[in-house]
């Protein structure tokens, strides 16, 4: 992209998406203005009803931005949204187990997107938030998970991967990679789950049973956290030490998120019949409404700030 300006970048993104194509866009941009660009870009796309660009890189040596402009299907968005709501609800329900006021405040301040920067070979990869790899091999996605842990100096404490077998979406797998400094672990990380099936296909009388355990340290890091709130290491588990997770994503709940997203993607989700809300559904709805309000307020604030500039 020659002579890039905010308007030209936004128009280029919109044009590529309307053509239903995928493009890698590279252009020069000063290193000290990266955050400002991405902030304004997110606001401008939001005002146009467009999603943000989720795949970005910045090469500090060449001072170049790389945007991966690709289509995100409804199944990807819906799974991301459903998973976000499940995690938010799990965190909310676990608050009663946190007695310390300062830790409770830190837990309440957890936001729904990644804040870590991934540095590798003079580049910064700003896509730890949510990265869709339907065009990537499983090997590449797993290598990316290892990079997220090894290249962020502890800023990322867990990488959760859902493989939806897109576009057929007839099976679904879950993987979880975490850092692990146990003696003898040269890799510095370990797979808690690796391509574990949580949806085994249509027509099965019994689906796989299991769960993904997440700990408060997966969101806040280990610094300043009591040991009881931290994920046990591989050495701890070998010694028989276990701890209570703060967020449990059962395979049953992951299937519900996946199947609803698949139905919406396929356009076969009919009108729902109103019925009594369970306590779980009511809590999930409130969490979702609160998150949506916070998101709308934040975007309106940023839009107002941009108009004032």
Give a quick precis of the structure:
The chain is built from nine helices and ten strands. The protein has helices spanning 6-18, 34-47, 74-93, 101-108, 138-150, 216-220, 234-238, 251-266, 279-308; strands spanning 23-28, 55-59, 64-69, 118-120, 123-125, 159-163, 172-179, 189-199, 211-214, 247-250.
Describe the structure.
This protein is 40% helix and 18% strand. It has nine helices and ten strands. The protein folds into two domains: 6-70; 74-285, no CATH class. It is globular, with a radius of gyration of 21 Å. The chain has a five-stranded antiparallel sheet with strand order 1-3-2-5-4. Strands 6-7-8 form a three-stranded antiparallel sheet. A two-stranded antiparallel sheet has the order 9-10. By secondary structure, it is an alpha+beta fold. The model is unreliable at 268-275 and 277-281 (pLDDT under 50).
